[in-house]
Amino acid sequence: MNDIHLTGDKLPLFNSDLRQQIDDWMAKYPIDQKQSALIPSLHILQEANEGWLSEDVMRALAAYLDIPAISVFEVATFYSMFELSPVGKNKINICTNISCQLNGSEEIVAHFKQRLGIGLGETTDDGKIMLKEVECLGACCGAPMMQVNRDYHENLTADKVDQILGELE
Ligand code: FES
Fold first, then answer.
1. Level-2 CATH architecture, domain 90-167
2. What is the dihedral of CA 136, 142, 147, 153, to 10 degrees?
3. Would you say domain 16-78 falls under CATH 1.10.10?
4. Whole-prediction pTM value?
């Protein structure tokens, strides 16, 4: 496949480096099971596309994996870890599921709103931070918790949130 430069996206997708990363995942599965590489491929392309997946990107991946585009859309729209529209430079996933709720996630969300002036599902005007409400992230023993980009932060307090926000670029 030739390099594809998708209009509207800042990074060229399916350059040789990205293809190699996707090929490495495909090589882990039988030749007729390319779809098994779908989720890691979506992660690779999302990271290369400033944190989100456009329809063009998903269609290009479907063509590369030789699977129906609907199969890519189904996965990308099901999991909260995939974004289908542009996001802030830093994505903060706040868990509000039962363990986190019982341990103060509502106060954490309220603190974010007061501190940043945005609610869940919104991005700051400067594009620096996006807040997202998510279901259980599997770190209930550290509730309330949140994920900032790739890192988990547990046992949150307002002071701890302020410290973490202060360290973001
Ligand atoms: S309920 Fe929040 S991590 Fe499980």
1. 3-Layer(aba) Sandwich (3.40)
2. 180
3. yes
4. 0.78
pLDDT digits (tens, 9 = 90+) for 55-105: 999 999 998 999 999 999 999 999 988 999 888 899 999 999 999 999 999
- 18 Cβ below 6 A of ligand 1: no
- Between CA 35 and CA 68 the distance in angstroms is 10
- CA of residue 133 to ligand 1 center, whole Å: 11
Quick one: pLDDT band at residue 111, thresholds 50, 70, 90?
A: very high
Tell me the best of 92, 102, 140 to mutate to test the pocket of ligand 1, counting ligand atoms within 8 Å of each CB and taking the most.
Answer: 140
Q: Is the CB of 81 under 6 A from ligand 1?
A: no
Half-sphere exposure of 3 (CA within 13 A, CB side): 9
Check pocket membership of 116 for ligand 1, CB cut-off 6 A: no
Using the atom order of ligand 1, give the atom closest to the CA of residue 98. 1
- Which is the closest atom of ligand 1 to the Cα of 100? 2
What is the spatial distance between Cα 79 and Cα 77, in angstroms, rounded to a whole number?
6
